[in-house]
Design brief:
The protein is α/β, with parallel strands linked by helices. The chain is built from twelve helices and eight strands. Strand 6, helix 9 and strand 7 form a beta-alpha-beta unit. It is globular.
Length: 349
């Protein structure tokens, strides 16, 4: 056991999701006491109930998992049958709720030492289905004559001339769930509902800022700590169709730098990871086909990923552990580390 993690309190937001459920389990295996935060209690309970087979890459003792009854339904911040975890259903954009949670954590377990800001994501209502401006955007709706032109609008780099996939043997992430074909071209950027645009901005910016302010102050009062944020490939250059998400994730790298320099005197380090393409329930719809192959967008991603596969949650664990560790990353703050199979290094040509 690394003494840096032993019995320290780690708060993990988005803990019911693909990446942070694995990170939460990993931190528990390192010796942390882990607060699982997300809006949906059932998703958090599932993390506790994950069978050992699903965790084969993690050094988590199976006996500990066997003790967890799936039917347990603890309240906010209540302990679970596994003493290493607290379940905390909470919306991270709700300042009062996060403040209340921080007080419960402090009272029950002591100050938060590690904060993983994993809560985030996209909203289909904030995503156009067309890639770029078309005559249809001028009218606000489609007419019959526009369909031919729309086909041209949707020809992104690599979308029309994509060769048959050379990656068929390495699509395990796609084959694990039910993908769906990309939606038909019908909605442009100007059709996007601004309420959805705002929601995506809020969860992916304030959803990190609010817990950072509240738990960051708790860390400072206790003498120090470490915060990990989630950026994205969109941090560097926006992908098509995800404008508010990309804008927010660019903001995360900037916020990471701001908060790192502000909190350095309080011995709180702040860093970020920028995962490449790691298939989750939502992105599977856009990257995969129903039969487990690659969608045109998935083909484009793969063509720009030199390692030729999607990432897995386990690919992040070494980087996360290093960035959080106050000895091995003692002089590291304000950085964003891509974990992307070479996506950013590739010009794709
Ligand atoms: N997967 C990728 O390829 C990838 C790539 C780059 C960056 N990222 C980023 O990495 C992080 C984790 O991604 P993931 O793939 O694990 O996503 P995921 O599977 O969708 O999990 C995200 C979790 O965040 C929770 N969440 C959303 N809004 C919340 C809110 N307002 N308050 C509390 N919890 C909230 C969701 O649970 P509830 O809905 O129950 O709250 C969900 O379980 C996200 O920030 C994502 O943007 C992912």
């Amino acid at each position: 056991m690394n003494p840096q993690f032993q019995d320290k309190v780690a708060v993990v937001t988005g803990a019911g999701g693909t990446l942070c459920s694995a990170i939460a389990k990993h931190l528990a295996a390192l010796g942390c006491k882990v607060v699982l935060v997300g809006r949906t209690r059932e998703k958090l309970e599932k993390v506790l109930a994950l069978p050992c087979e699903a965790q084969e890459n993690l050094a988590l003792p199976c006996e500990a998992q066997d003790r967890v009854p799936g039917a347990a339904a603890p309240g906010v911040g209540e302990s679970t049958p596994d003493p290493r975890f607290l379940i905390a259903p909470c919306d991270v954009t709700d300042e009062a709720a996060v403040q209340a949670l921080a007080e419960r954590v402090l009272a029950e377990w002591g100050p938060c030492r590690f904060l993983v800001n994993g809560a985030g994501g996209n909203d289909p209502a904030a995503m156009p289905t067309r890639l770029r401006f078309c005559e249809a955007d001028l009218n606000g709706r489609l007419t019959a004559g526009h369909h031919e032109k729309l086909t041209a609008c949707n020809k992104g780099p690599g979308s029309a001339e994509s060769p048959a996939s050379p990656h068929d043997g390495r699509l395990s992430a796609c084959q694990r769930g039910t993908g769906s074909a990309e939606p038909p071209a019908s909605r442009g950027f100007f059709d996007i509902d601004m309420a959805a645009f705002r929601r995506v901005l809020e969860i992916n910016t304030l959803g990190t800022v609010i817990p950072s302010r509240i738990f960051g102050l708790q860390m400072a009062r206790a003498g120090g700590g470490s915060i990990l944020n989630f950026a994205s490939m969109n941090t560097y250059r926006p992908l098509t169709r995800v404008a508010p998400y990309a804008m927010a994730k660019a903001g995360i790298a900037n916020w990471t730098q701001f908060f790192a320099q502000y909190m350095a005197p309080a011995h709180v380090r702040v860093n970020a990871v920028a995962p490449g393409f790691m298939v989750n329930e939502r992105s599977r719809k856009y990257l995969c086909t129903p039969d487990g192959g690659l969608s045109p967008r998935g083909e484009q991603v793969m063509a720009h990923t030199p390692m030729g596969r999607f990432g897995e949650a386990e690919d992040l664990l070494g980087c996360v552990e290093w960035l959080l560790d106050d000895t091995r990353a003692a002089f590291v703050t304000g950085i964003t580390v891509p974990v992307d199979g070479g996506f950013l290094a590739s010009a794709g040509v």
